[in-house]
Each structure stands twice: as C-alpha cells, then as structure tokens.
Amino acid sequence: MDRDDRVAFVGGINIIDDFDTPRQKPPRYDYAVRIEGPLVGEVREEAVRLWNRIALARLERRWRVAHPHHAPPLPPRGSQKAALVVRDNLHHRRDIEDAYLETIGTAKEEIIIASAYFFPGTRFRRALISAAAHGVRVVLLLQGRVEYALLHYASLALYGTLLEAGVEIYEYHRSFLHAKVAVVDGHWATVGSSNIDPFSLLLAREANVVAEDRRFAAELRASLRAAIEHGARVVVKTRWFKQPLWRRVSIWLGYALARLTVGMFGFGGRF
Homologous superfamily of 8-264 in CATH? Predict the structure, then answer.
C-alpha cells in the first residue's frame, strides 16, 4: 500500500535483495500486481487486520494505531472484474483453495499453473486429473532447482500420477521460481502469495487477487509461456519412469517425510 491508500500491491515478491543472496543469480522469477480502484480499500483492510493480530499476539500497544479506514471506495480505474481472496485460520480457511477448485472444475480448454512449492492435496490432484481426462490441457510450471530439499523431493513423487493423466510438467531452471499464479481458459487469472502446498493452503496467512479479464489473462499467459520456452525444461513421461533406483528411493523418502510432517499438523486426511 502507498500512504495515500490509492495503490496496493499483491503477489509473491518478498522485500529482499536477490543480488545479495547466495545462489540467486539471476533473481527469483516472481509476479505481483499493482492495484488501483475500489479493491485497494479491501487490501488495506486485510493488511490492518493482519497488523493488529500480530501486534496483539505480541502484546504490543501499537495495534491500537492501525485502525479500520472508512473512507469512501475509490472510483473504478478500468473495466476489469477482480476480487481479493484471503486465507486465514478464522473465516477464510479454504477460500483460496476453493477458488482454484471451482475454476479448475469448470475449465474447458486450458489450465496453466505456476507454483514455487507444489504439494497439492487429494482434492486438488483429483481436480487436475479430472480436467485432463475431459480434454483440458493442464500445464504446470514448477520449481526446477532444489531450494528446500524435503518439499522438492516430495513434490517429485506426484509427477508420475500427473504425467500418466496427461498433465504437462515443466521445471523452471533459469533461477529460483517463486511465482504463485494461474490462468484458466484465457479469461480467469490469479496472482498472489499462495503456493499449492499444505503450508499455504491450510496454515499460512495468504492473499491472492482473482481477475476475470481476457486482456490481463492473455498478458499473464504470454509471460508464463515465455518462461516455459526460455527458462524451463519439459519433464518427459518416458524418461521419468526410467529413473535410477537411488533417485526413486530419495523421492519416496522425501514424500513419506513430508506426509508425516503434514500429518503432525492434522492435515493428513486431506493431503
């Protein structure tokens, strides 16, 4: 947010100097959207709520300073239809996941998802597989470099089932992937902070902007296609199932440990 409540940003980009971080050459590949108009007020309200909850949890007095803002909504700045979708542990526990699942369930032509950390639960995997079975082109752009070993190898354990279902998988190698975006059927798009993994979908505080706009979706799709073409490698189905034993063992060990960790938080039935 800017100090005049006229502009907001939502996305996955952290406040970090990638050029001063080990192994970050080039910088992380990520997305964020700049927002103007009525949606800015909603972003501000969510930011205030988060600030207050954190301050209150730390028993800090400054939570009283961040008060709700009741200024009139800003006038529209374009023709796009957009909404802010948040995930918290109170009233919006599954909103982001449900937004994905609803759109995936109605897809007719194409689903493109880019996710830095990809470890979807049963419902999400079934939705992607069902879409592919109904002739929808499903494309995943995932992390190609090993950043967090446990989650990386756990994610790989899901590749076989998805590839068998006809899902296309590309791994981004040019730098670390940090994107959390998707485009469906050329008109629905989302940009935000939520990955497709248990931490983002079931535990962390996250925010995504969902837009119904063909121009915006087309720009995001073109960017993702360029990233796939120039920075990613396709996971070939026939090669995947011919991996050496040591690699298959490491993948399934990672998967077992990740499932155990998820189960400790009480999400084992859904992941």
Answer: Endonuclease Chain A (3.30.870.10)
